[in-house]
Design goal:
Layout: E1 9-15, E2 18-23, H1 34-45, H2 47-52, E3 55-57, H3 68-80, H4 89-92, H5 96-102, H6 118-125, E4 137-139, H7 141-154, E5 162-169, E6 172-173, E7 182-184, E8 189-192, E9 195-199, E10 202-207, H8 215-233, E11 238-243, H9 250-258, E12 262-267, H10 271-276, H11 278-291, E13 295-303, E14 313-322, E15 325-326, E16 329-333, H12 342-349
Parallel strand pairs: 5-11, 11-12
Antiparallel strand pairs: 1-2, 3-4, 5-9, 6-8, 7-8, 9-10, 12-16, 13-14, 14-15, 14-16
Helix pairs in contact: 7-8
């Protein structure tokens, strides 16, 4: 039995003095109007165009329906609008707003949609080092890595005097049996553990990693590459690398010291460090007990571990007592004593 469709209007009860009418003659519609705004920003930044330039297209020109730039823009815009899964694009390829913003309202061939489907986009994302039968678009991974730093540098008319590079790893939770899945004890679930480097709001690097690898040991390669690229354009800029205690590794700190890059990392506490600030801790504890409020004090001293560090470094300690409990924290830095007192360094810079 065929469905009977009505193109007429359906009247609902009035509300707030206004008629409420449902009509079914709107034709093909879209809820992704924000795409147009995002596209305007992309046109100004040139992100899709410059990102697409990092790929080599080995497809036969006579059989190409979707340019690399079209594929890249479709995927980026989908992510920007919350469509993370490639499966979504089997519907989005027919979306009028996506087609309008991409300049394609219909396919070039009778059996092609205006935009690419999930399988074509999947081959783009899984591009390897060399073309094969199923993947003919090859990513230049070195060019992709440098693109984000180039975009950051291009946003400045003049070199700043000082920049801060924030490095961190965070969980990207997974729920199925994806390859490379691993359980992470800190987060308490299976996840990936991508490594990010930011300068303010600017993303400089994003590296997808499995959760069974130590980000502190792998951050040096990204930091070295980013610093070298920044200094090639801004040779006099002062750089501070900042991160939590997972990055306080001797290899990274030594490289920073040898290359005139400052660092400020968290430092995991241990018995030796707690003993080093025992007198400060007692003073702060007595103050908190007397006032009935939280109290904190700060100290700065030179420090070296028993065997994991190759040289002495400045450590700043924060001793804090709240509600009868100890909350001591430590950071390690190259910033000298005269540049910043311990309280300012911990509370404002770190």
């Amino acid at each position: 039995m065929q469905t009977e469709c009505s193109a007429g209007a359906y009247e609902f009860p009035a509300s707030c003095g206004r008629r409420v009418v449902a009509r079914f003659d709107g034709g093909r519609m879209s809820s992704d109007g924000g795409f147009i705004v995002v596209k305007q920003a992309d046109d100004i930044l040139g992100l899709s165009r410059r990102f697409a330039a990092c790929f080599r297209d080995k497809r036969h020109p006579g059989f190409v329906e979707y340019r690399v730039e079209d594929l890249v823009r479709q995927r980026i815009m989908g992510l920007a609008l919350g469509y993370e899964d490639l499966n979504d694009h089997d519907a989005l390829r027919h979306d009028l707003i996506f087609g309008l913003a991409s300049g394609r309202l219909s396919g070039g061939r009778a059996n092609c949609a205006a935009l690419a489907g999930k399988s074509t986009l999947n081959r783009l994302e899984r591009s390897g080092q060399q073309a094969d039968r199923y993947c003919r678009i090859i990513a230049d991974h070195e060019a992709l890595a440098t693109l984000f730093v180039t975009l950051f540098l291009d946003q400045h008319e003049h070199a700043p005097a000082r920049i801060v590079l924030d490095v961190d790893a965070t969980d990207d939770r997974i729920h199925g049996h994806q390859e490379g899945r691993a359980f992470h004890g800190y987060y308490g679930h299976n996840c990936y553990l991508p490594l990010y480097v930011f300068c303010g709001d600017h993303l400089l690097s994003a590296t997808l990693r499995t959760a069974d690898r130590d980000p502190g040991k792998e951050a040096l390669a990204d930091i070295r590459r980013i610093v070298e690229q920044i200094r090639s354009r801004w040779p006099r800029v002062r750089i501070l690398v900042r991160g939590d205690s997972g990055f306080a590794r001797d290899s990274l700190m030594t490289w920073c010291e040898d290359n005139h890059v400052d660092f400020l990392f968290g430092l995991a506490g241990n018995t030796r460090l707690y003993d080093r600030i025992a007198s400060l801790s007692a003073e702060v504890r007595d103050e908190a007990a007397t006032t009935g409020r939280a109290a904190r004090g700060f100290a700065s001293f030179d420090w070296i571990t028993k065997d994991s560090w190759t040289r002495r470094r400045r450590v700043v300690a924060k001793a804090e007592w709240r509600h009868g409990n100890r909350y001591h924290r430590f950071i390690v830095t190259t910033l000298p004593q005269g540049m910043s007192d311990p309280r300012h360094l911990y509370e404002q810079v770190y």
